[in-house]
Amino acid sequence: MKPVILAENLGKRYRIGLTPQKYRTLSESISQAVSRPFRRAGAIIRRSVGQDVLQPGEEYIWALKDINFEVQQGQVLGIIGRNGAGKSTLLKVLSRITEPTTGTVAIRGRVGSLLEVGTGFHPELTGRENIFLNGAILGMRNAEIVRKFDEIVAFSEVEQFIDTPVKRYSSGMYLRLAFAVAAHLEPEILVVDEVLAVGDVEFQKKCLGKMGDVARDGRTVLFVSHNMSAVLRLTQESIVMEKGRLVLRAPSSEAVDYYLSAGNAKVGERIWEAGEVPADAAPFRPIAMRLLDKAGKIVDTVRSTEAFKIEMEYALAGPLTGLRIGIYLSTARGEFVLTSFDTDDQKHFEKYGSRPAGHYISGCVLPPDFLNGGRYTLGVNASSYRVRRYFMDEQALTFNVDTSGAPGMQWAEPRPGVLRPRLEWKIESK
Amino acid sequence: MAKAAIAFPEPKTVVIRSSNGWTALNLRELWVYRELVYFMTWRDLKVRYKQTALGVSWAVIQPFLNMVVFSIFFGGLAHIQADNGIPYPIFSFVALLPWTLFTNALNNASRSLVSHQNMITKIYFPKLVLPLASVLSGLVDFLIAFVVLIGIALYYNLTRQAHITITTALWTLIPFLLMALMTALGIALWLSALYVQYRDVGYILPFLSSILQFISPVVYSTTMIPAKWQMIYALNPMAGVINGFRWAILGTPTGPDTRLIISAVVALVILVSGMIYFRRMERTFADTI
After folding, report:
1. pLDDT tier at A22, thresholds 50, 70, 90
2. For testing the chain A interface, which of B38, B43, B118, B189 should be mutated: the one with the most A CBs within 10 Å?
3. Is A74 helix (H, G, I), strand (E, B) or coil?
4. CATH code for the part of the protein at A63-260
5. Most CB within 10 Å of its CB: which of A9, A179, A204, A366?
């Protein structure tokens, strides 16, 4: 069967503004200064007839490069990646908002794109008027909007205010109305970017439910999100993008694991360079977070059957009262396993109520026979309770837990669950 | 899971690729999106006078106050003579009708792309919809002001300062109006596309409007232009439009002749070239805006 979307060799190049000039000799500088206005004027003229040329000092960047993929009818494909990985650019190309620089995409069917909810909403117009306007902007026929009007209003839960200008709406109401219109779009291919990050939790659930319905109707959906649980719930397969390239296409659970572990989180040791630490962290300065095995060696894989140590090294430029260093252990998919603070213990809490300026390491040991096999993420947080949070990195480190030698390894099946304790079983025959 | 519960008609395949050079005008697609043109026009109208104390009266006040000012300074102080002894106020008001329509259309349409940045970067649609809707929404103001013209004409007739009659020439207002819209849209297509890339256009616009007003017979009559310059003067389509309006309503001796053909051809050239240029630049809008 022919794919609904077939992207071949897709690339998109953008110009980026002035990069810092490299050191030059005086004669070069002078000749540049003379020729610059001419090159600039030339660029302005050529650009105003639609040519893609650089002005002096500008550079190109490939937001998408060598993208190849296909999507079958009825498939729900997740697109995941960090900010700036090219996800949105890809959606823009697929929805014909911007043209690719290289390559082609063949698309069979009407594409409805939701890159934003409420595009074209006008604050002065009433809810009712905006529904019609926004519907038309999203490509719905007038008759279609009339037919679905009541359904849209009911979905948005703003019945009472439907004849009030939307500038009087709360932001939640505004987003609900906007999403309600979008949710009733019925194209053959739906392209959705992160619009579920709107509204309260209840409404998000409702939106996800609606998306699920769309998918079950046999429509093709491309879904970009940073919400991994939404990706896992809605999609069977996902692609992972990194720096404009498609690096992985796999069943969603695998793709999500890859994404969560391939990112900022370094393996074994995370060192914070001065430039990476936000200025408002002061006087706290993180230095490094490490994972150490029994022998004190930095490792990225620990054995389930052995204890291991987590260390956080940091410096204080001034004394801090009530400081606590917390670690957050979660699975690579984002389920929390535990949270622990270095001053959890009453004795520590009293002793370190105030810490003078200096260089510290807070460390703890995780017991053997504790975690199940898989990938885990460690986050760190430095705060004074109810006073201030100095620093936080939710994905400071990732590591693997290897189950060799763990209880039950005589059976090669994967074992669900986060923990893999060695429990004392008693088998009695009566 | 019930897959493919909906039977889709075999859809057309669209191939997305980089389009180089000049592209077809693709007016067919504009037709497909005609409802969007309607809604954008409607939105412009709905929103235009929201939260103003005087509301839609502004459609009348603008040309009316201009008429008063022109009558005092040009008609009164500068002694500019209207053709056939027509009272200066109505002489200028008849010109101000298409002129106000033209400048408002030109200004709004030229800014239309930049003021709808959000739509351009988030939704696919033929961008021509935006300037077109801006131009069309000015028509309602024009019609309201036209009613006022009837009032002014009645006043002059009743006070016997002029004798304005309904003639069969009045139907020509429609093609003249069309010519004004074509010119405004044509220039706006050029400028709006340039505006996306160079915000300089925003500074040029007010300046351009006033220059165009000087070279159009708004405050004076075309008959004041020396005969040897008449053909060059006619290169300005708005000269043709205003002359036509005065001729059709007031019976001035500026009726259709060769000069009108020149004006009409120029208007058409501006419009078509504007469309071609706009279409060429359209693919870069979302990236450069």
Report:
1. low
2. B43
3. coil
4. 3.40.50.300
5. A179
